[in-house]
Design a protein that fits this description.
Number of helices: 11
CATH topology of the largest domain: Aspartate Aminotransferase, domain 2
Shape: globular
Strand content: 5-15%
Distance between the termini: 47 Å
Number of strands: 10
CATH superfamily of the largest domain: Type I PLP-dependent aspartate aminotransferase-like (Major domain)
Radius of gyration: 21 Å
Helix content: 40-55%
Number of domains: 2
């Protein structure tokens, strides 16, 4: 990224050979993202991250349609829920309905199909949940939606870099990508827009990025995102296998070293290889005091509920159970020694 902060500083659309070189580098980065996602490079639009990608997909698609009915799963991120909840304020003809989830943490495609209406414009279903790690049956839901002429948006930000993802096989119409989820620069991202799909822009200015995103390109961020995507594409299978082994080893260590073995939420469901939600015998916040060098997540707010709380409520956990739950994430550089140390610290905090 460094040369594009200074040496190659021109914008790709300018009429100068140096600008043309920047434009070529930008397109190479776009191709790297497309290769990771399994699509054509012209179907990739750069954004400032997953939040903008979700907003652009949802508001851009619905802006090109008549008001109607939208389905959204209970497990979605705030950047999906937020723009949808504001639609009825803009036009009361919009109707937003929530797709329920059971304690497995997985949406049933048959439930989605039964909720589709003649005026359903969009279904929003994340690829994987960031708290409990469950992987959703996106392809099955997409098939049912398309059979009824309904578009599907997938927030797949949690999947890239942890498992192979092919947007063509998922059959989504739009897919959100976030760079920092697979070690790209923070504040970088992209959206996959299926060939031939019409979106309306949600911000306005000089038409760039297929007319969907005006303004000067964040060239260093896009270059870094493309490079990270190429590395993720190359290493994903190996990373997925290793993360699964580490996750399972971590769970085995907790069961072995804690006198009251923890409950692993949604353990029987398809899950991300790097994400573990653990219900502990006591208040999960104790871990922040007992092991300050562990970076883990707990519920922060119940009113309004944060994503952690909303996800656990969706799978039927009570407020006391939510307060005892800890989310642990593993990364590409996580070692076996770190896993063992983490298990020791958690066991010591609750025994």
């Amino acid at each position: 990224m460094q040369p594009y902060w200074s040496t190659h500083y021109m914008l790709p659309g300018q009429e100068h050979p140096h600008a043309h070189a920047v434009g070529e580098a930008l397109e190479n980065a776009r191709e790297g993202i497309a290769a990771m996602a399994g699509c054509e490079s012209f179907e990739i639009v750069f954004t400032s991250g997953g939040t903008e990608a979700n907003n652009l997909a949802i508001l851009g698609l619905l802006g090109a349609s008549q008001p109607g009915h939208v389905l959204v799963s209970q497990l979605e991120h705030e950047s999906v829920v937020g723009p949808l909840l504001r639609l009825p304020d803009r036009d009361p003809r919009w109707s937003i309905e929530t797709i329920p989830c059971d304690n497995t943490g997985v949406i049933d495609p048959r439930t989605v199909e039964s909720m589709l209406r003649s005026d359903t414009r969009l279904v929003c279903l994340q690829g994987a949940n960031s708290i409990v790690g469950t992987i959703q049956p996106v392809r099955e839901v997409a098939d049912r939606c398309h059979n009824r002429g309904v578009c599907l948006h997938c927030d797949a930000t949690q999947m890239f870099g942890k498992m192979p993802v092919n947007v063509k096989e998922l059959r989504c119409d739009t897919v959100a990508i976030s760079g920092h989820k697979f070690y790209g620069p923070k504040g970088s991202g992209a959206i996959y827009v299926r060939r031939g799909l019409q979106l309306d822009p949600i911000t306005f200015g000089e038409p760039r990025e297929m007319g969907l995103r005006p303004g000067a390109e964040n060239v260093p961020g896009c270059i870094g995102l493309g490079t990270a995507a190429s590395l993720a594409d190359r290493c994903c299978d190996e990373a997925c296998e290793r993360l699964t082994q580490l996750r399972d080893h971590f769970i085995a260590l907790l069961n072995e070293r804690m006198s009251s073995p923890p409950l692993i939420l949604c353990e029987s469901s398809p899950r991300l290889p790097n994400t573990v939600a653990i219900e502990l015998p006591g208040d999960a916040k104790r871990i922040h005091e007992a092991a300050r060098n562990l970076a883990v997540a707990t519920a922060q707010s119940s009113s309004p509920p944060d994503e952690f709380t909303r996800s656990l409520r969706a799978i039927g956990r009570s407020e006391s159970q939510i307060g005892r739950t800890l989310r642990v994430s593993l990364g590409w550089t996580t070692s076996t020694e770190q896993i063992e140390r983490a298990a020791d610290l958690i066991a010591a905090a609750f025994d």
